[in-house]
Specification:
The protein folds into two domains: 6-312, Rossmann fold (3-Layer(aba) Sandwich), CATH 3.40.50.1820; 328-429, Immunoglobulin-like. 21% of the residues lie in helices and 28% in strands. The protein has nine helices and 24 strands. The strands form five sheets. A ten-stranded mixed sheet has the order 2-3-6-5-7-8-9-12-11-10, sandwiched between helices. It has a five-stranded mixed sheet with strand order 17-21-14-13-24, with no helix packed on it. The protein has a five-stranded antiparallel sheet with strand order 18-19-16-22-23, with no helix packed on it. GO terms for molecular function: hydrolase activity, hydrolyzing O-glycosyl compounds; polysaccharide binding. Pfam families: CBM_2 (PF00553), Esterase_PHB (PF10503).
């Protein structure tokens, strides 16, 4: 798609921005004007419902895209909105790509976001998520921002809040990136405490369904699309221990109707292991990056921010590029009836070397579950599925093909699967 057009602030808007500077300084915070100074971190007051007295800081670049996207960047414990602004590269990325950044800031002692109370875990519950939602509404109303491109990211306490925002407001946020967090609801307490040692120590484990139910309970009755999630964690995290990473993966794959088997696994940098669920490209439904030997302070300026931006799709105005097709082609046909269907899949080796042993990854549409198959073993039965060769068909010579098939139930969507990859490499659809 074409590069988004940008519009500079008009002379009138610049004059309004200059006026706003004088009413948003510490000496005069009675209110704000409609426009904040461009390319300047600015505090906004009177932005809407704010039950926990959060502060709002916003960064608007000199030029923004038409109907800009909005990124909420949430700080860590002991941090602040200005610290998140200066310690991450999201403002400079906003300068480059034309989106707007909101930096919420906690005013309570400890400077941690509220992620433990029943109020914080419920839509409209009267805690931090409500104030952050008001900030988003202020920006979308003031700048005619694109309400279909609202994203959240955070570090530590901010990562926990990212999980909460995506759970409480799935109709607001398109995707999130959580750096060293815990699953939605893991930190919940009933005694008013803001700290949950069992969760922090990684001793709370649940099934994917149970974790997913916690998210779904935040907004009962919601049946719309759910946001994508990118997760980061260091294996030596001694504050929010590493088992939380696996529990987050369980939660968000379940929320998005995916299985636990990755569609793709790679190593983008030494010591990193990246798994993608439900797709193989830069905008897979769930992406999880494990950092070997890294502790809680894992965020690396200039390295991780751009990868989060790519996951969101904010580095252009269209879908992120998918990996180039590998030396394989996959064709598939389905035949459906009532609540059942059969799928016939043909894998062709279009490369110049023989494939010895293969695993075919693909994503079943929501509501489909494989009940039996032939010429391969299929795990899991739904979501991101991996078909593994049988003992008699593991070799595919150049230009040769293998045919496999399965029978499945469906709940109304009988479409063919997609996002095929052979041994982790994307295939051309035939």
């Amino acid at each position: 798609m074409p590069t988004p057009t940008r519009r500079s602030l008009t002379l009138v808007a610049r004059l309004a921005a200059l006026a706003a500077l004088f009413v948003t300084t510490p000496a005069a915070r009675a209110g704000t004007t409609d426009v904040v100074p461009a390319a300047t971190l600015t505090e906004v007051t009177n932005f809407g419902t704010n039950p926990s007295n959060l502060q709002m800081y916003v960064y608007v670049p000199d030029t923004v895209t038409d109907r800009p996207a909005v990124l909420v960047a949430v700080h860590y414990c002991t941090g602040s909105g200005p610290a998140m602004y200066s310690g991450t590269e999201y403002a400079s990325l906003a300068d480059r790509y034309g989106f707007i950044v909101i930096y919420p800031s906690v005013t309570r002692a400890g400077k941690c976001f509220g992620v433990a109370s029943p109020q914080s875990l419920t839509r409209g519950g009267g805690s931090d998520p409500v104030g952050i939602k008001s900030m988003v509404d202020w920006v979308t109303g003031t700048y005619d921002a694109d309400t279909s491109r609202i994203y959240a990211t955070g570090i530590s306490s901010g990562a926990m809040m990212t999980n909460l925002l995506l759970g409480v407001y799935p109709d607001v946020f398109k995707a999130g990136a959580a750096f060293a967090g815990v699953p939605f609801g893991c930190f919940a307490t009933t005694d008013g405490s803001e700290w949950n040692s069992a969760c922090a120590n990684g001793t709370i484990t649940r099934t994917p369904q149970a974790w997913g139910d916690l998210v779904r309970s935040a907004y009962p009755g919601y049946t719309g699309p759910r946001p994508r999630m990118q997760l980061w964690h260091g294996t030596e995290d001694d504050v929010l221990r590493y088992p939380n990473f696996g529990e987050e993966i369980k939660q968000w794959t379940n929320v998005l109707g995916l299985g636990q088997t990755p569609a793709a696994t790679d190593t983008p940098q030494s010591g990193w292991t990246r798994t993608r669920y439900g797709g193989t490209g830069d905008q897979a439904p769930v992406e999880a990056i494990s950092l070997q030997g890294v502790g809680h302070s894992l965020y690396s300026y200039g390295v991780m921010g751009p990868l989060a931006i790519a996951f969101f799709g904010l580095d252009d105005d269209g879908p992120a590029p998918q990996p180039p097709a590998g030396p394989c082609k996959v064709s598939v046909t389905t035949n459906a009836w009532n609540t059942g269907l059969t799928g016939s899949v043909t894998i062709t080796n279009t490369g110049s070397t023989t494939v010895n042993g293969w695993k075919l990854g693909f994503t079943l549409p929501t509501g489909q579950t494989i009940t039996n198959g032939w010429n391969a073993t299929y795990t899991p039965a739904s979501g991101a599925v991996t078909a593994t060769n049988a003992s008699y068909n593991g070799t595919i010579a150049p230009n040769a093909s293998v045919s496999i098939g399965y029978q499945a139930t469906h709940t109304g969507n009988s479409a063919a699967p997609g996002a095929f990859s052979l041994n982790g490499t994307a295939c051309t659809a035939g």
